[in-house]
Design a protein that fits this description.
Elements lengths: L2 H11 L11 H12 L8 H21 L9 H14 L6 H25 L7 H18 L1 H12 L4 H14 L5 H18 L10 H35 L1
């Protein structure tokens, strides 16, 4: 069973008992990305990071369900337990509170995974892989301060460029969703593309790095638009399956 299969299994078979059957979408999206890119192979630096993220959610859920009290020394497990406990009690209906706890659990487990990977006898992650991990952590930081960031964006652009403020808010709201795998996967692809430009992973004979950077904003926007369409299809399909 792959980590992706396990994440899906947890949601389908156990997390519904905690009102959290769709709460590992963010992990699913990142794992789907690594599978498609052939990353996080067993025994690799990135595999340690990804394994710690999945382990923490598993152990936190097991604690919340009363199956076990073993954290596995992963500090993220306790934070996931707190998230699942609050979620099951209906106390995270406000997105601001939900995102803070979710991101805190994810951040903690990923940091633990990075620490474990760095002391393991495995080659260190490539600059591009480390950039991707840092970007995933940055996404978590944005999740925790999403409301405040949006407030300042609105305030700064209210009188000068309101359409831009609306656009930025939409982008932030989309990429910080965690109840579907689509936003995290699309975000990962965008970040991986940017990392490729910054660290020189471009096609031989192709555009130069400055030219690639000039094109990146357009590529970002196109990927975002495609992500919105894919997200709509995902949710429509999910509704159809659940109604059967």
């Amino acid at each position: 069973m792959t980590r992706l299969n396990f994440q899906q299994y947890m949601q389908a078979e156990h997390l519904g008992l905690l009102a959290a059957a769709d709460q590992l979408g963010g992990l699913e999206g990142a794992t789907t990305f690594t599978i498609r890119r052939g990353l996080a192979e067993p025994g690799s630096w990135l595999s340690y990071v990804e394994a710690a993220a999945t382990e923490a959610a598993e152990r936190g859920a097991a604690m919340a369900l009363g199956y076990s009290n073993n954290t596995g020394s992963n500090p993220g497990a306790v934070r996931w337990f707190n998230f699942f406990h609050q979620q099951s009690g209906g106390r995270l209906s406000e997105r601001r509170l939900h995102d803070r706890l979710w991101a805190s659990a994810s951040q903690s487990s990923m940091l633990y995974g990075v620490g474990q990977a760095n002391i393991a006898t495995v080659p260190k992650g490539t600059p591009r892989e480390q950039f991707w991990v840092s970007a995933i952590r940055f996404r978590g930081e944005v999740m925790q301060e999403r409301s405040l960031i949006i407030f300042f964006v609105r305030a700064a652009l209210a009188l000068t460029n309101k359409p831009l403020a609306v656009m930025i808010e939409g982008v932030i709201n989309f990429f910080t969703q965690v109840t579907s795998p689509v936003p995290a996967r699309v975000y990962s692809e965008i970040v991986w593309r940017l990392g490729g430009i910054l660290f020189g992973f471009h096609v031989a004979g192709g555009l130069s790095d400055p030219e690639e950077l000039m094109r990146f904003p357009q590529e970002f926007w196109e990927a975002y638009q495609e992500g919105i369409k894919e997200e709509e299809m995902y949710r429509s399909l999910k509704e159809c399956v659940e109604s059967v």
